[in-house]
Specification:
There is one protein chain. This protein is of the alpha/beta class and 139 residues long. It has helices spanning 8-15, 22-33, 43-57, 59-70, 80-87, 94-105, 129-135; strands at residues 2-6, 37-41, 73-75, 110-112, 125-127. Helix 3 (43-57) crosses helix 4.
Amino acid sequence: MNKVFVDTDVILDLLAERIPFFHFSAVLFTFAEMKKLELYTSPLILANTFYILRKQLGNSEAKNALRKLRILLHVVESSESIIDKALNSDFTDFEDAIQYYTALDHDIKIILTRNVRDYKNASVIVQTPEAFLVTNTFV
């Protein structure tokens, strides 16, 4: 089964129903619900998602949305060594570096984000949800 790490923008596309990206995130999470792939994320991504969602939905609704989503997501830990790797990396975006090294640390070989260009030197597959769905079959 595919282990896939999802970034904040992918989760927000689903929960905030951001067009035109909503459809691809919805399909992705549907496949997770069907147990055709495993989705992973980090506490930092959930915190960022909540921060953005609460401005749109309010605290209570944002938490409810994350509670429902949490059923489909595995949350993996970051560590001091991951932070150190991120701090000493060539990534221009520190948050992306944390996500990248968190995925590597947990042997996750696919990162889904809409900011693919921020991972140009990655040693794992980095794709948009749309590209991932086009290149994988879930039959």
